[in-house]
Design goal:
Elements lengths: L2 E3 L6 E3 L3 H17 L3 H11 L5 H20 L9 E9 L10 H13 L25 E7 L5 E8 L1 H4 L3 E5 L4 H16 L7 E8 L2 H11 L11 H15 L14 E8 L7 E8 L4 E7 L5 E2 L10
Parallel strand pairs: 3-4, 7-8
Antiparallel strand pairs: 1-2, 3-5, 5-10, 6-9, 7-9, 10-11
Helix pairs in contact: 1-4, 2-3
Length: about 300
C-alpha cells in the first residue's frame, strides 16, 4: 500500500488502494440507494406523528415501513434508482485526486450489478439503454478543489425521473425578480407537483444565467432539512415559499391531506446587471443523498447516516 507524507501535516496519510476505494464507493452507493438519511427519516416521522388526517398518517406509515424494509434487506427504496449526481470536494493534497473521475465511473458500473441499480442511462440519439448507468456526462460529477487541504468528501444524490420532470429554469429581468420567481415556482409545483410523488423537497437556484441557477438548484437539495440560508432575506424567502407551496393542498401522494412540501432550500450566486435567472430542482419524498468523508488516517465518515459503517 502506498503511503503519502503530507507536507506540513505532521502525520501520515494512509491511502486506500484503487480496488479498496472502488469497493468502498460501491458500498457507499448501496447505502444511498437503500437507506434514507437521518434528517429525511426524521422529517417523515414527524409528519406521520403530527396527527391530523388519518389517510395522510397511513401514507406516512407505509413510507416509513418501506424505508425500514429497504434498509434491513439492503435493497433499493424505489425501483427508479435515479441518475447519480456526485459533488466532490478534493483537497489539492488528497491522495485520490488523480483517480477522479475514472474511479467514480468504475464504482457506478459495479454498483449497478451488485446493489443492484436500475440502468437509467439512455442514449438520447438512439434511445438505447446503455446498461450500466455510464454514458456521456453520466454520472454527473462536479468538483470543488480545496487549497492547502487533504480532504476527500464525496456527496451523492440519486435523482429520480418522476420528480425531475418538474425541473425547469428561466430568466427574468431584475426589476421584479423575487416576485416573478415566487410565481414561477408556485405555478410549476401547482401544475405538476401531484405527479412528482409528494411530499416534495424543493431546491431553488438564483444566478446570472439559467445554467448557473440550475446547478445551484440541484446543490440546494444537499442541504439538511430544516436548515436556512445564512442570508436573512433568502432564509425568509425559503420560509415564505414553503408556506405558499403547502397552501396548494396537494398533500402526501396527492391525497390533499398533509403537507405537500417538507422543505425549500435556496442557493444563489451574484447575477448579471440585466438578468435574474431561476432554476428549480425537485425531489420526491425519497430524498436519497449521502456524504462520505475519507480522512487522512484512513477513517471513513458518513455524517448523514448515523450508525452506518463502511469499513
Amino acid at each position: 500500500m502506498r503511503r503519502f507524507k503530507l507536507e506540513g501535516g505532521g502525520g501520515k496519510c494512509v491511502a486506500l488502494r484503487r480496488a479498496e476505494l472502488r469497493e468502498l464507493l460501491v458500498k457507499f452507493v448501496r447505502v444511498v440507494a437503500t437507506r434514507l438519511p437521518d434528517d429525511v427519516l426524521k422529517a417523515l416521522r414527524d409528519e406521520g406523528e403530527a396527527g391530523g388526517d388519518p389517510v395522510a398518517k397511513r401514507f406516512y406509515g407505509m413510507m416509513l415501513e418501506n424505508a425500514r424494509y429497504a434498509a434491513e434487506e439492503e435493497i433499493p427504496i424505489c425501483q427508479d434508482t435515479g441518475i447519480p449526481f456526485f459533488f466532490i470536494k478534493l483537497g489539492v493534497r488528497s491522495p485520490y485526486l488523480s483517480l477522479m473521475p475514472s474511479i467514480i465511473e468504475e464504482s457506478m458500473e459495479k454498483a449497478t450489478d451488485e446493489v443492484p441499480l436500475r440502468p437509467n442511462a439512455v442514449d438520447p440519439v438512439t434511445n438505447e439503454n446503455l446498461g450500466d448507468n455510464i454514458g456521456p456526462y453520466i454520472p454527473w460529477i462536479e468538483y470543488e478543489l480545496l487549497p492547502d487541504s487533504d480532504l476527500t468528501e464525496i456527496a451523492l444524490l440519486l435523482s429520480g425521473g418522476g420528480s425531475s420532470l418538474l425541473g425547469r429554469s428561466t430568466t427574468f429581468k431584475p426589476l421584479n425578480g423575487f416576485e416573478e420567481m415566487m410565481e414561477f415556482i408556485v405555478d410549476a409545483v401547482a401544475e405538476y407537483g401531484v405527479n412528482a410523488c409528494p411530499p416534495l423537497f424543493i431546491g431553488i437556484g438564483i444566478g446570472a444565467t439559467s445554467e448557473i441557477a440550475s446547478a445551484l438548484a440541484k446543490k440546494a437539495l444537499l442541504r439538511r432539512i430544516g436548515s436556512r440560508n445564512r442570508n436573512v432575506v433568502i432564509a425568509e424567502l425559503e420560509e415564505l415559499l414553503l408556506r405558499r407551496l403547502n397552501e396548494l393542498k396537494i398533500g402526501v401522494q396527492g391525497c390533499g391531506a398533509g403537507r405537500s412540501v417538507l422543505d425549500v432550500h435556496i442557493e444563489y450566486s451574484a447575477r448579471h446587471p440585466t438578468t435574474f435567472a431561476v432554476g428549480l430542482s425537485v425531489n420526491c419524498w425519497i430524498l436519497r443523498r449521502g456524504i462520505m468523508r475519507l480522512h487522512p488516517d484512513g477513517g471513513v465518515e458518513l455524517p448523514l447516516h448515523s450508525g452506518v459503517k463502511l469499513r
